[in-house]
Amino acid sequence: MDYTEELFHHLQDGIIIMDGKRQIRKINKAAEKLMGWHVGDVVPFCSYCETRKLAAHEERCYLIANQGKVPYFESKMPRMGEYLINVEMSNALIYEADDGDKHYLLVMRDVTVKNQQEAARLSKKMLHHLTEAKEAEHKRLSQELHDGVGQSLYSVAIAMDNLSMAIDDEQLAAYIQEVRDEVGKAMEDVKFYSQSLRPKSLDQLGLLPTIETLVKSLRQKRVDLHITVVSNCYDRLSPVAEINLYRVVQEALHNIMKYAEATEVQIIFEKDRFGLQLIIQDNGIGFNVEEEKEGLGLLHMGERISQLKGKTVIQSVVGEGTKITAYIPKNELIREGD
């Protein structure tokens, strides 16, 4: 039994057999659907052939001009009665008669989706590099604040302490103490900003201890907010996973503190053999996800999880609270050398 005809029409790629004048002699269903052409139609010139410079007596069709020896070619082709679409083409000379009549096999594939996927991949890659550069700069600034400004303020504070002990004038001593208190506040601010930019403990101790430190500092600011951290994951993760997960938790807690009016927050890290799940949920006022999904905070959280090839789901009910769930596959969590 000959299945040639059935195979011809069931192939996903568009298949066309055309003569030297580009008239279609045979066409499969995929090509008809893709381009809207039929047997007897003339294959139009693609956007490249329409404008390319020709040598004397050269055939305008690039594929025919090269006698079917072009293995791969991408251009825009006019679809019948509509618009230009991106197509990937290859061709071969399959028949040549003694009288010079030639038939060419033309294979076509719509690459619009492929190009969109490639653009998305490049965009994601660029975002990944920008995030890395941003985090590297945060780390540098954090170090500068701690080792530069922080140490200078510490030296000033020590000098003022020594000065106040050497002064007998009570009024002057009180004034120096006031200034010393302000220097102490400035030191605390520098420490806070340094920690916010890039916590040292993230590189030294890992994700969970750093989040515990963050939560401890927030508890001091909001004594009415009860935050619990639950985890079965105490291993060190890859640096890119640790910083991105930390930023997601940091952003979520910032939003909760600013908008949620919550009294209870739970942060859960649950690791299984396939990856890691992060859940952040509160009992706050909630919001309409559809209306707020384009908010920068939510977008940034999604982008960071996406960089780890993970998925993010945000659920919220007005008056009942919000739940953020993220899942990161195992391969993105492994540190080099583990």
Automatic annotation (TrEMBL):
Which controlled-vocabulary keywords does the entry list?
A: ATP-binding, Kinase, Nucleotide-binding, Phosphoprotein, Transferase, Two-component regulatory system
Q: Does the keyword ATP-binding apply?
A: yes
User: Reaction catalysed by this chain?
Assistant: ATP + protein L-histidine = ADP + protein N-phospho-L-histidine
**Modifications made to the protein after synthesis:** Autophosphorylated.
GO CC, sorted alphabetically, is:
cytoplasm; membrane
Q: Does the keyword Transport apply?
A: no
Q: What is its EC number?
A: 2.7.13.3
**According to the lineage, what is the superkingdom?**
Bacteria
A GO molecular function annotation here is: iron ion binding
Q: What is this protein called?
A: Sensor histidine kinase
